[in-house]
Amino acid sequence: MRKVEKVDRQWSALPELVLDGIVKRLPSICDFLAFGRVCKSWRTVSLAVRKDFMASQSLYLLLPLRIPSQTFKFYSLQDKRCTVTTLPAYRCISFSCGYLIMTAAYSPLLINPISMHTIRIPKPPNTYASYYATLTTAPVSPNWSLLVFASSSNLLQVFGPSGWEMQRTPDGWDLMDLTFFENNLYMLSTQTRVAILDNKASEHGETKEMKLQEIGTLPHNEQRDASDHFLAESCGELLVVQLLNTHHPHGRRVIHVYRLKSRSRVWEEIQSLGDRALFLSSKCRSYATVSNPEKWGFKANSIYFTRHHMWYMARLEDSRVESVSPGLLPDFVVNWHEDSPVWIFPAQCC
Asked: Which of 109, 188, 249, 317 is the most exposed place for a label (fewest CB within 10 A)?
């Protein structure tokens, strides 16, 4: 019998064409990250295709394993896989510009869930038991800022290159939500008034008084005062989503969606999101827009939201509300009993 000669193969010497073929067959982000850790040449390939690979990935959900705990679950809608990981914080507030905004002893932490790049931020001057936060841009850019506010408060705390700064809205203008759209900060009040922040501000001691340019009040309807409202940028459009606060949403009109007509600065109610689906996490005021959601089992022209530890889907064309079907999301996602899930865009983490 012919003796087979043993050949030692160097994985780092595989041709780039072969490595490209391997990357295209990787089923998940976890596998992609493991691929980049094999050796220097594999990491070089992973960095070259990282942006395209992340853009091909679906949304992820981040949920706490239990509270208080630093253990979290990442759940992929694409391959329905769950990864348990430990993060240096106890609570996730939001996902913004590719970073998780988390808290540890009232001090914010910014964590990129892909690279695990972490930025620790000093405790803000005013601490809240619960607050919302967003980034102006990714914290790898030179002029990024973190904005922190509590619901129904008129105080906005901004962390930038010079540290914390406090800004106050005019009297009678309490914050409900804010978002960035076309390089402007849009703010929504508890009275459903919308305004753009004017960069000019007057000094009053340690707090700056904001100057706001109001762009109209949302159309009135009988449910407005019993609703929660979200500002959301979706595929080049600025939306306000009105979500009725109710324990029993089935069979009721619980969703109204308004779009800003930029030229006239008028809000119009819309009945269609086209091929998009909008995902809302009410407790942490985070949201995500997905085009062509059918490829992951969700429906277009729909809004998925949480109410009292339950998942619902509202169809805009007929306002029909139904519970999320079993099997679309695993039990630990559907029946969570802790903080609201946070939606993560892998493409923003590059």
From this structure: 317
Torsions phi, psi of 142, nearest 5?
Answer: -70, -25
Taking the C-alpha atoms of residue 148 and residue 104, their distance in angstroms, rounded to an integer, is 15
SS (H, E, C) the chain: CCCCCCCCCCHHHCCHHHHHHHHHCCCCHHHHHHHHCCCHHHHHHHHHHHHHHHHCCCCEEEEECCCCCCEEEEEECCCCCEEEEECCCCEEEEEECCEEEEEECCEEEEECCCCCCEEECCCCCCCCCCCEEEECCCCCCCCCCEEEECCCECEEEEEECCEEEEEECCCCCCEEEEEEECCEEEEEECCCEEEEEEEEEEEECCEEEEEEEEEEECCCCCCHHHEEEEEEEECCEEEEEEEECCCCCCCCCCEEEEEEECCCCEEEEECCCCCEEEEEECCCCEEEEEECHHHHCCCCCEEEEEECCEEEEEECCCCCEEECCECCECHHHHCCCCCCCEEECHHHHC
**Tens-place pLDDT, residues 118-129:** 999 999 998 876
CA-CA-CA-CA dihedral for 10, 12, 16, 20, to nearest 10: 100
298-312 per-position pLDDT tens digit:
889 999 887 666 778
Q: How many residues does the chain have?
A: 350
How far is residue 174 CA from its own chain's centroid? 23
Map tokens 């759209």 to a residue.
Answer: 181
**pLDDT value of position 229:** 84
Report the distance separating Cα 145 and Cα 135, nearest Å.
6
Tell which residue, 27, 30, 23, 28, has the closest CA to residue 84. 30
φ and ψ at residue 82, rounded to 5 degrees: -120, 135
Q: Which residues contact 198 (CB under 8 A, 6 or more apart)?
A: 210, 211, 212, 213
Helix axes 40-55, 29-36, angle to 10 degrees: 160
* pTM given for the model: 0.84
Choose between 133 and 317: higher pLDDT. 133
